[in-house]
Amino acid sequence: MKILFLAFVLCFQAVSIAQPATELAGKVNDIYLNSFNNESIKPDNIREIQSVLNRIAASDSILSVLQLDKKNISDLINEFSLFENANQHTDSTLKTFYPVYLHFVSAFRQYYKGQFIYSARKKILFFTSSVSCECTVTMCQQQLAAVLRFIQQHNGQYELILEDTWSSSYFKDKFKAGFVP
Asked: Which DSSP symbol is given to 131?
């Protein structure tokens, strides 16, 4: 009985530890869509993300459960700070946020990969590129916005994973995708 209780407690703890990653994805996706629409981003939204990232970085158990690298999370926190400052001085928030978004996806790749693989929901695998010609990057940004809007409209029905083909090839290799941007 004690073993069963301990297993339940550990499972519950892992779910509650993983909660910040789930919340972050939604918040970061919202900022991406606002950036895509060239809408202003509220500094409070960025600070909220930074707060969650700081909480994650401060906890070795959360870092372990989410399979995150502390330095990578610290770098991501810094990028959000730089974006917050740049956001006040640019006409195109998407141009400054897209690299931050891809860094976020990269930092949480292992956790989100596990969520994606074991999810019972319908799956969307999206290949994008951070390094390519300007027209290809723009196309990736536009298609990503369309996919994020689609997922928002079908709340809870789809699991998305994004693979930047410049920095990762796990899904590209797994599904034997030929050329991707």
From this structure: S
- Token pair of 161, please? 């994973």
Backbone phi and psi for residue 135, each to the nearest 5 degrees, phi listed first: -65, -35
Contact 148, 124 (CB under 8 A): no
64-49-130-140 Cα dihedral, nearest 10 degrees: 120
Contacts of 53 (CB under 8 A, 6+ apart): 24, 73, 76, 77, 80
Give the total residue count for the chain: 181
**pLDDT digit of tens for each residue in the chain (181 aa)?**
544 433 333 343 444 566 778 789 989 999 999 999 988 888 899 999 999 999 999 989 888 888 888 999 999 999 999 998 887 666 678 888 999 999 999 899 889 888 888 999 999 988 787 777 888 888 889 999 999 999 999 987 999 988 877 666 666 676 666 555 5
Most distant CA pair in the chain: distance in Å? 61
The C-alpha atoms of residue 24 and residue 155 are separated, in whole angstroms, by 16
Residues 6+ positions from 170 with CB-CB distance below 8 Å: 113, 163
Which of 18, 19, 22, 82 shows the shortest CA–CA distance to 50? 82
Q: Whole-structure pTM over 0.85, yes or no?
A: no
Rounded Cα–Cα distance for residues 24 and 110 (Å): 15
